[in-house]
Amino acid sequence: MSWLGILLTFSLVEHVLFARMLGLDPGTAEGPDPQRAVATGLATALLAAASAAAVWALRVRVLEPLGAAWLQTPAIVLATAGIASLARLVLRRAAPRAADLFGPVLRPSGASVAALGTVLVAARSGFGIMEGIVAGLAAGAGLAVALSILGGIADRLGPGEAPSPMSGMPRALVSAGLAALAFTAFDRVFLAGLVR
Amino acid sequence: MMSPEPQLPSAVSAARDRTAVLPELVAAILPSLAAAVTMPAALWLSAAAIVSLLATALVGVLVARRLRPAAGSLAVLLVAAALACGVDLAASAGLPSVHADLGIYLPLTVIVMSGPVAAAVLADARPQERTRRAVLRALAAGVAFLGGVGLTALAREALGAGTITLPGVAGGRVFRLPGLSDAPARGLLAPFAGLIAAGYLAGLAGCVALRVARRAAAQSMAAARPGPPYPGHTAAPSPGQEAAR
């Protein structure tokens, strides 16, 4: 697949949230926050790209020469979790204000799960290092757009529009389902026509 | 000066403690709904989730006594990663069709489901009851996963494909539903239907959590209010009432 194809597939057609249902955490669903939406998308993009590169290096330099390519799944999990933890630690020491913004989105749900899913898909598709990085960046961009859309919907609905058990996460999920319905317009036929 | 946090009655705080993990659990169950569009898929995912929950909860109990929280989280993650690899390899060797249908969601479910319950086990403030509470938490989360994903898959398959597939190792048995199988609502098999179903499931879970907290509050208020020791008993008049009489 070409880079443009990967970019469009991971940002629109096989969307990380609307098609794969990854990247929504309870904190993101609390209310409209454009800054948090962009932070989650950026964290996903950077984490997925870094993990894809690390996993590619591990696979090519360590696992395949040792005949242990079957250890790819734990390598992906440990690389993604390790990079997320390292990023949290470095941000807390070097840039506390950025840590306040990125710390919550790098928890074991949300951006980390979105990045983990993207890297698993990229690895199973046999992507190389550059394809993996492009897929990660595209997935993060798609997630930022999706969370901004959900934030806009929550902003327009207001706090009193839904019964109390449906407020927060449930309302975000139903909104995401309706937005995902709109995203079904971006299917493989559309992509094939666009890339050709 | 900031006013101190109001002290919750113990029953209410216990109820909140029991239901605090619900939003995290809903977020963890969510990815599975993208793959669980038939009953066998839902059941295989649930089996993987329950194994992962029990294993990581028990590892959490073991390491919480010996290791610091950060090292404990790392140990739980290592076990979850090993389990994910094992489940993935076992499925690809023994159940290739299930492995192909579920794709990344099998290892992903093992990893994602282990997080919230293991974190709750590691942070448990009652070390004497940690093992029992960890097993109960893991089983409750597993049952919640099975109920949520299983019911959603059953409804989506019945309405979206007009069939109900009973699980079995050799592909299972497929029952066609008269009427629905002729004109199924295929859109319900798409991920957006899973998101909407997950929204209503999360609303239901929130409703249950609200009821549990309200019942606990009502019980604690009833316990705090002194009632008559037996029916028909009247309290002795106070000195003020005597004087007024």
Q: What can you tell me about this protein's structure?
A:
The complex is a heterodimer of chains A (196) and B (245). Chain A contains eight helices and no strands. Chain A has 196 residues and is an all-alpha fold. Chain A has one domain. In chain A, helix 3 (72-94) packs antiparallel against helix 4. Chain A is globular and about 60 Å long. Chain B has 245 residues and is mainly alpha-helical. Chain B has one domain (10-223). Chain B contains ten helices and two strands. Chain B has helices spanning 10-19, 22-29, 32-35, 39-66, 69-94, 96-102, 105-122, 130-161, 191-224, 239-244; strands spanning 163-166, 173-176. In chain B, strands 1-2 form a two-stranded antiparallel ribbon. In chain B, helix 4 (39-66) runs antiparallel to helix 8. The longest helix of chain B has 34 residues, at 191-224. The model of chain B is unreliable at 1-6 (pLDDT under 50). Classes of the chains: A mainly alpha (196), B mainly alpha (245). Chains A and B meet through helix 3, helix 5 and helix 7 of A and helix 2, helix 5, helix 7 and helix 9 of B.
Uncertain runs of chain A are none
Helical stretch tally of chain B:
10
Give the number of domains of chain A: 1
Report the C-alpha radius of gyration of chain B, rounded. 24 Å
What do the pLDDT scores of chain A average to?
85
Global outline of chain B = flat
The computed structural class of chain A is mainly alpha
Helices and strands, with pairings:
The complex is a heterodimer of chains A (196) and B (245).
Chain A: H1 3-13, H2 34-63, H3 72-94, H4 96-105, H5 111-124, H6 129-157, H7 169-183, H8 188-195
Helix pairs in contact in A: 1-6, 1-8, 2-3, 2-5, 2-6, 3-4, 3-5, 5-6, 6-7
Chain B: H1 10-19, H2 22-29, H3 32-35, H4 39-66, H5 69-94, H6 96-102, H7 105-122, H8 130-161, E1 163-166, E2 173-176, H9 191-224, H10 239-244
Antiparallel strand pairs in B: 1-2
Helix pairs in contact in B: 1-9, 2-7, 4-5, 4-7, 4-8, 5-6, 5-7, 7-8
